[in-house]
Amino acid sequence: MDITGKQDEWLQAIAAASDGPAVAELEARLFGQKGEVLEMVRSVTSLPREERPAFGKAANGVKLTVDKALAARKDGFAQIELNKELNATDFDPTEPGPRARTGAMHPITIVQNELVDLFTSMGFQWEDGPEIESEYFNFDALNIPGDHPARESQDTFLLSDGNLLRTHTSPVQVRTLQRLVKQGFEPPLKVIVPGRCFRSETVDKTHEHSFYQMEGLVVDRVQKGENGATGISTANLIHTMKTCLRVILERDVEVRLRPGFFPFVEPGFELDVNCPFCSGKGCSVCKQSGWIEILPCGMVHPNVLKEGGLDPEEYTGFAFGMGLQRVVMLRYGIDDIRHFMGGNLRFLSQFPEVPR
Ligand code: DAH
User: Fold this and answer.
1) How confident is the model at residue 201 (pLDDT cuts 50, 70, 90)?
2) pLDDT bracket for residue 149 (50, 70, 90)
3) Does residue 187 fall inside a structural domain?
4) How much is the mean pLDDT over the chain?
5) In the chain, which end has fewer C-beta atoms inside a 10 angstrom radius, N or C?
6) How far, in whole angstroms, is CA 264 from its chain's centroid?
7) Half-sphere exposure of 276 toward its Cβ, with a 13 Å CA cutoff?
8) Could you say which DSSP state residue 141 is in?
């Protein structure tokens, strides 16, 4: 048998097959039961023994070549079919893919993260406390005894088991002091406590029942020298607060202190910042005063230090309680506190996070 001639004939037939079905037909003719190629290979048995090895080798070579050519032709037509199908749809492989919507940081989280970064860079440590708090830590330990009017004014959510939802982050002051003193830790101590607080308030433009605060506490030993005693003072408080507000409000700030009453500090202050909207000239946001009340603070009350396990003769400190929503509102010019928990994606997706 002229197997080389056969090979040429088959390869020509493959090249001549004009579409998928023609290739399929050819495949059946060559490789099906009694297919011509297979028959050729099998015909080796009819040859004299000595011719068999050479023929077998050549026949297998032809089989492989033809098989390969057939497969390539088949693939070619399959690809053409596929392209036809793709072209028949609206699929445009050059069109850029749809952009997946990514989440955005909540503005309170953004500002809280920035504050935590800032304070930790100044050597503060982050402390946490429970949202379900005892009366003792929320009030008594902070020099707010049972009959104190401040308890009333805090509109506390009381729980049936005698605990309550903390009304501020201040309880973590005493919790931290007690824990560290028990561990034998000696001040200096600088902590911040970001966290959620709750008050039974009627919600309006400026009030929320759930809100975020960041408490700060700095305590150090009083140094007694020839010129009297020095320790943590109001000057340290003002400097820290000014630095913090400058970073968060992204501009130079002026601050002023007014007396403020909080049982856990003495003296207590309300710290005001010059209005970022009118630079202190007077506008509707600052009610023409040029100043905006931004955070309450003060020098830690001796009773609080005592409750924390420290001798107020030996240690002094300052504390502050920043309302995070308030700072966020000032930073972004947001005029209604209800936006924060409103769940409106148009509001929530507009705050770019500054790369940290
Ligand atoms: N805990 C107070 C509140 O929510 C705020 C506060 C005032 C915190 C003075 C302080 C402070 O640390 O020194 O209303």
Assistant:
1) confident
2) confident
3) yes
4) 91
5) C
6) 34
7) 20
8) G
Ligand 1 within 6 A of CB of 269: no
The CB of 321 under 6 Å from ligand 1? The reply is: yes
Ligand 1 site-directed mutation target among 168, 208, 232, 305, most atoms within 8 Å of CB: 168
Q: What is the pLDDT of residues 297-317, one digit of tens each?
A: 999 999 999 999 999 999 999
Q: Where are the beta strands (DSSP E) in 99-188?
A: 125-126, 132-133, 164-165
What tokens does 50 get? 């000595």
Q: What is the DSSP letter of 207?
A: B
How many angstroms separate the alpha carbon of residue 180 from the centre of ligand 1? 21
258 and 310 inside one domain: yes
Structure tokens at 189: 């101590």
Q: Per the domain annotation, does 284 fall within a domain? A: yes
Global pTM value: 0.72
Question: Could you give phi then psi for residue 272, rounded to 5 degrees?
Answer: -110, 150
46 and 158 belong to one structural domain: no
Q: Ligand 1 center to residue 85 CA distance, Å?
A: 70
